[in-house]
Specification:
Distance between the termini: 37 Å
CATH superfamily: NAD(P)-binding Rossmann-like Domain
Shape: globular
Number of domains: 1
CATH architecture: 3-Layer(aba) Sandwich
Order of helices and strands: EHEHEHEHEHHEHHE
CATH topology: Rossmann fold
Largest sheet: 7 strands, parallel
Number of strands: 7
Helix content: 40-55%
Number of helices: 8
Radius of gyration: 17 Å
Structural class: alpha/beta
Strand order of the largest sheet: 3-2-1-4-5-6-7
CATH class: Alpha Beta
Strand content: 15-25%
């Protein structure tokens, strides 16, 4: 049985991803940092359906914490599906943005990807099969007013995706990025009012976490073996 790790697995998109990957037959590690109770709930839900999952907690912005956590799970074998989903935003126009806001958002969204992915790559490479799926954002493709820090981090993730895809191609490991637009959930409720969505999203609605998770499940499958280095939008025709 292949094993997956989903960072930020206790969040809205993350939990949907965990459930769909588990339904696809993977053993899923549901990662959390500040919300282990929600991760436990997701794991129990997955197990209740007869699928397999476990909770793992660590701070993805700490190189030491990542390495310690990864060392434990690698004792049971390689992680062959990695979904770098953990992310935060802390918005302000750049002229008024605090240094802490800039550093914190890049630390979680970009440095966290680096620490976790680097720690898992060598064992994945040894199996000669793998999937790395990075959750970018439409903001990383188009930019977004008041989100220079978030847009920079998500654009950086796209660049890293394209480079890593080339590095891993000969090992039968695909690396792709997903760039969601407005997806319903905690991160967007207060940011995108219904009127804004109706005026700016051609489909006149927010997407759902399940719609993003379905794409993740496909990219993690054997059917997506020749898709790598791509940035795929889930945005209701916004771009």
């Amino acid at each position: 049985m292949k094993r997956a790790l989903v960072t930020g697995g206790s969040g809205g998109i993350g939990s949907a991803v965990c459930e769909q990957l588990a339904e696809s037959g993977l053993f899923v590690y549901v990662h959390a940092n500040k919300n282990p109770e929600k991760a436990n709930y997701i794991v129990e839900k997955i197990r209740g359906r007869g699928d397999q999952a476990a909770v793992i907690t660590f701070d993805i912005t700490s190189e030491e914490a990542v390495n310690q956590a990864v060392k434990k799970i690698l004792e049971e074998g390689a992680i062959q599906v990695l979904v770098n989903n953990a992310g935060i935003h802390d918005d302000a126009i750049l002229a008024g943005m605090e240094t802490m806001q800039w550093q914190k958002v890049l630390d979680v969204n970009l440095n966290g990807f680096f620490y976790v992915t680097r720690a898992l790559l060598m064992p994945m490479m040894q199996t000669r099969w793998g999937r790395v799926i990075n959750m970018s954002s439409l903001a990383g493709v188009m930019g977004n007013r008041g989100q220079a820090n978030y847009s920079a981090a998500k654009a950086g993730l796209i660049g890293a995706t394209k480079s890593l895809a080339q590095e891993m191609a000969s090992r039968n490991i695909t690396v792709n990025a997903i760039a969601p637009g407005v997806i319903s959930g905690d991160m967007t409720t207060d940011v995108f009012p219904d009127d804004w969505i109706k005026n700016n999203v051609p489909m006149k609605r927010a997407g759902t976490p399940g719609e993003v998770a379905s794409l993740v499940a496909f990219l993690a499958s054997d059917s997506a073996a020749y898709i790598s280095g791509q940035v795929i939008g889930v945005n209701g025709a916004m771009a």
